[in-house]
C-alpha cells in the first residue's frame, strides 16, 4: 500500500514537471512568434527603418523560394525605368562573396542602356533598397547617407550586407512567408541645380532719398495718409503716418512708417531687406528728428516698419511745423536686390 502511494506521488510530480515545462515552452514559442521586429537589431551599419509605403521604382517577388534559396549565382530582374534612366535589380540570395556578403543577402541596382548616354556621363542617385516583411506588412528600408554616383566605371551600386541570412531565414522574423519573398528599389536621380538665387544687399543705392511735404497739417483728419511711391532697388516704397498718433504715442506724438509696396517689372519677387533712416526735417535749421529701422519686408505689399513717436506734438512749433506744413524724409541706406543667375 505504501509503495502504491509512493508511485502515485512520483507520477503526479512527473506530470506536473512535464506540464510546467510544456507550458513554459509554449509561452516562449508564442512570445517569439509575436515579438516585434526591430529593424536596427543585428542588420549592419546602414540606416534602415520599417515603412508602410511600397517602393516607387521596382518590386520583385519570388515564389517557391525554397527552390532557389541556396543558389549562389545572382538573379537579374527585367529592365525597368526610373527617373529617366533604365535599371536592373541584382539579387544574391546567399550573398555576394566578392563584396563581403558572406552569410548575408546582397542586393544591387545596375544602370542599363548606357551606350545611349553622352561621353563622360554621370548620374547621382539617392538609392533605397527594400525587403518586404510580410508578417508586419511593412518594408525594411535600407539606404545610405551618401548619394551613389553611377558612371562608366561604376554601373552598379547596392549593399553586400543587405540583411543577415540568419535574420532573413528566421521564420519568426517574417521575411519568408508562404515560401515567398519580395525585394524592391527606389531610385531618385539628383539633378544638379543650374541656377541659383543670389541676394545682394546694396549700401546707399541710387536715388535713395525721398522727401514728402505734408500741407495743411492742422486740418488733417484722424486717419493714415500716404506719400506717393518711390523706387529704390527692385521695389516701390512709400511713407505713411496718422497726424493724430498711433499706438503708445497717441495722441501726444507723431508717428512715421515706411511701407513696402510692389515690385518693378521683371524683378524677382522675394522678401526684401530694407534699412531706412527716417527724418522729420527742421525747416529753420539743421536739427532733424531721426529714427531708424531695418527688417525683412515680406513679398505681400503693405508691411510697414517705423516708429510711433518721432516727435511730440508740442515740439512741432520749434521749427518743424512751418506754414502749416511738415516735411518727412526717408533715406534707404540698405536694400536687397535679388537675381536668378547660373551656378
TrEMBL record:
<dbReference type="InterPro" id="IPR008974">
    <property type="entry name" value="TRAF-like"/>
</dbReference>
<feature type="domain" description="MATH">
    <location>
        <begin position="55"/>
        <end position="187"/>
    </location>
</feature>
<keyword id="KW-0732">Signal</keyword>
<dbReference type="InterPro" id="IPR002083">
    <property type="entry name" value="MATH/TRAF_dom"/>
</dbReference>
<dbReference type="Pfam" id="PF22486">
    <property type="entry name" value="MATH_2"/>
</dbReference>
<protein>
    <submittedName>
        <fullName>Uncharacterized protein LOC108826531 isoform X1</fullName>
    </submittedName>
</protein>
<feature type="signal peptide">
    <location>
        <begin position="1"/>
        <end position="22"/>
    </location>
</feature>
<feature type="domain" description="MATH">
    <location>
        <begin position="207"/>
        <end position="332"/>
    </location>
</feature>
